[in-house]
Amino acid sequence: MSMDICITLSDADLKLFVDGMNGAQKKVDHLDAVSIIGAARNLLEIANTRELPDFVATRFRHVEAMIAMVEDAGFGLPDQDRDNVLAALTYFASPEDIIPDKMPVLGFLDDALMIELCARELQHEIEAYTKFRTWRDNEASRRGVNASELMLTRVEWAETRRIESIERMHRCRHESYVSGKWAPVLFQVR
Predict the structure, then answer these.
(1) Among residues 49, 41, 47, 90, which one has the least CA distance to residue 65?
(2) How many CB atoms lie within 10 A of CB 77?
(3) Cβ atoms of 94 and 147 closer than 8 Å
(4) Phi, psi of 144, rounded to the nearest 5 degrees
(5) DSSP class of residue 14?
(6) pLDDT by residue (tens digit) across 91-107?
(7) Is the pTM of this model over 0.70?
(8) Residue 97: which of 53, 31, 35, 42 has the closest Cα?
(9) Residue in 41, 42, 44 with CA at minimum distance from that of residue 52
(10) Where is pLDDT greater, at 190 or 86?
């Protein structure tokens, strides 16, 4: 039996998380990107050794996506966006935790809540990266190679999306002509 629990965070509650994030960032402001990513990876490794509630495990997949997004040269995350993702990951590099990770069942609850807040802040970046990876994986499969062997970039992805949009527009126009729903009035279609 599953159960839905809805948590409403007030402005004061959100401020506590923002303060927690700011405190974590101050404690690790001396770390470089490699160290921040390493700490986030370490947290994932620890989490993978434990049986986690689905609520928590689902959120940790966002951390994996954030790490991959920062490291993926093909995606080429712009510097400001990269800095935002790294800022989100700094919480996991901090040695102090609101709820110690060793605590059974609840140990990763604060991490899951912070991940959820970060994922909402980075929703558009995560969605774009997920679409890019899906496109790249499909392209690799279509070409019969491993995605890691295929160095495709966001520019190529954007061009592919542009071409697909134009093809979709032409297909829809053609279908509307063929079905007799609409015929051009102002110009002739060849």
Answers:
(1) 41
(2) 20
(3) no
(4) 75, 30
(5) H
(6) 877 766 666 566 666 66
(7) yes
(8) 42
(9) 44
(10) 86
